Amino acid sequence: MDNFVYHNPTEILFGRGTIADIADRVPDGVPVLLLYGGGSIRRNGVYDQVRAALGVRRVVEFGGIEANPQFATCMKAVGLVRAEGVRFLLAAGGGSVLDAAKFIAAAAVFDGPDPWEILRTHGEVVKTALPLGTVLTLPATGSEANGNSVISRAETREKLHFTSAHVFPVFSVLDPETTFTLPAKQVRNGIVDAFAHVMEQYMTRPSAAPLQDRIAEGILQTLVEIAGRTIAEPADYDARASFMWSATLALNTLVGCGVPQDWSTHMIGHELTAFHGLDHAETLAIVMPGVWRHKLTAKRAKLEQYGRRVWGVGTAEDAITQTEDFFRSIGMPVRLKDHGIDAAESARRVEARFRERGDSFGEDGDIDAAAAGTILRTRA
Ligand code: NZQ
Ligand code: ZN
Fold it and tell me: Which of 113, 179, 180, 255 is surrounded by the fewest CB atoms within 10 Å?
């Protein structure tokens, strides 16, 4: 196990009725910016609960944050933060709203001419940020308990992430009842995203970290166990609660402590969203089995361990097939053609993008432009 620092400053308020608990956590006497998306929180009662909890505080609202939040939209909110003297951000929604809040929190106090630098440097230039809290309504990204944010730029077809200790939420409310209104497609997406987050930190090579392995496998097993039920029965509280907590633990930095990490699936996936508009999780289900087969020799020991412990199968190939079958069983396609995308063309574009940036990813740093292209061509 490698050296690591584990510091997660986010307070989690989990369970029914916990939105009310933000009342004594959001600062008094300063303007608060309430951020939300396309309106789901107005339809499912979350907005009313949040406003009730905020009481007489001065609240400025900014809605309309898109799925795959846009830089231009975030910059409008930055203008509002400055104009109104906002001192605290409250994000209510899915990962997109939370990620936007993190970027706005950093950009509003960024000391430099162009806040895009925050993304171009993946967070290196972030020295401070406004504090933020979240009310999560979509279990998937883990954004509620990490320092990551992913922002898109339509005009250049870019989707970049940044990471900073300064944008961990101060608190996050996780009330499973707020997720009962999710369309089945978003639940499916969330399960696959959480599954992939565990895998990016687990499916590498043995690293003398048996506890991290067992935690990872426990999250995977829980997701497999509740997936069908929580899609079929959205209001089954217990299944939804297990799903929600699994998604948070999948990417709150715990699983990744002291172990090698991959993340090549996510990096290739972000390009697929930028170029083809696929949902984030849709890209992961396509790319991940391809990365595993491409790195079959290097990943064999972990693939076999995963196969044995999670699926009860003996070979690396069987473990990969089981994973693809699982994704399909919850309605998630695993091939580019399922989305009408030409693999050769997609590979060419992603390869060019990786080459232009000089990027390479993976636990061995060998998923470069050529490898990304090769992997995508196998996912036709
Ligand atoms: O916009 P509204 O109206 O709120 O509707 C949203 C949106 O249309 C809807 N929704 C959310 N909660 C709902 C609901 N509808 C009904 N009832 C509810 N309770 O769901 C749609 C999708 O929301 P979005 O926030 O885009 O989804 P998700 O949480 O999957 O976030 C995806 C974004 O997160 C990034 C992705 O790249 C993508 O941009 N990621 C962030 C990460 C992080 N911060 O650590 C890691 C991930 O790997 C990922 O890259
Ligand atoms: Zn993800």
Answer: 113
